[in-house]
Amino acid sequence: MLMSCRPEAGRDSSCTATKHTELRTVVRRPSTTCTRPSPAVVRDGRPGLDGPLSQFGLGRSGRIYVIAAGWCWHNAPSTSARHDNSSSLGIEAENDGRQPWPSVQLDAYRKLCARLCEEFRLPASVVKGHKEVNTAKPNPHSINMNTFRAEIARLIARDDMPTAKEIADAVYERFTHTVPADVWAAREKILDPGQKVDPRTAFRQIWAYTKDGYARDREILARLDAQNATIRELAGALAQRDGEIDVEALVRRIEAAISGITIRLDVNDHA
Fold first, then answer.
1. Which of 32, 38, 79, 90 has the fewest CB atoms within 10 Å distance of its CB?
2. Residue-level pLDDT at 263
């Protein structure tokens, strides 16, 4: 990443602590053994490009390294006069151009940019990705720079209000729990003891239970209809044998007797 460095009145034009800074991510050589951009490459350069290659290094662990002070070869040719080697600071972030960005590394990335903006009294808008000021560079891959700058601006403003994603993640985590071994759902083998149940899993289970309950309800209603039809048929048969039997009254007595039966189910716990 780059930060454009614009000299203040009365200062020289070298990129020092008197400057305006802008950030860019430089895709480094793939590294599976280093926890930060190779110091030999970033500090001393490589064939065809002298060092230092950037002022800062940022490892995947989130650790920040000061590589050099002053002028570095971190962006050329630049499409922005404010983001060339003479007027910007560079951050070399460890990534092979395909790896996902660890959250700890992104967090350090944002905080470093915000701190540099604060030090040089710059807005977050000066922070640029290499891909934004150099047509030959695709990095930093998969990072939305507008979102990245908004997050830096929030840090500069000391706005502690969490983002919508942070709120959503917290709510999701709050409603995620582990199934204890002694609950009804575990005893009935609906859920496994120790199973993590998140809102998505819970919703699927509720939907499955609802569908199953609906099917069972329809089955019960069908049986009740068949039962009522059988009761009426039996009452009619009895009436044919005994003319004094009132079919409707008999049916009502049987239905009343059935309605008086109470079935008690005790479910004292839940998953």
1. 32
2. 63
Tokens found for residue 50: 């002298």
Question: Considering just the CA atoms, what is the radius of gyration of the chain in Å?
Answer: 36
> Which residue, 132, 161, 190, sits at the end of a domain?
161
Structural domain count of the chain: 2
From CA 113, how far away is CA 116, in angstroms rounded? 5
How many other β-carbons are positioned within 10 Å of the β-carbon of residue 190?
15
How confident is the model over 28-70, as pLDDT tens digits?
233 333 344 476 788 888 888 888 989 999 999 999 989 998 8
Q: Which structural domain, as residue segments, surrounds residue 237?
A: 163-271
Digit-coded pLDDT (tens) for 205-229: 777 778 878 888 888 888 888 888 8
Q: Compute the half-sphere exposure of residue 33: CA atoms within 13 Å on the CB side of its CA.
A: 2
Instruction: Give strand pairing partners of 57.
Output: 65, 92
Under DSSP, the state recorded for 235 is H
Q: What is the reported pTM?
A: 0.51
Residues 111 and 155: beta-carbon distance below 8 Å: yes
Token duo for residue 227: 């039962």
Are both 173 and 155 inside the same structural domain?
no
Helical spans, DSSP H, in 33-190: 39-44, 103-119, 130-133, 145-156, 164-174, 184-187
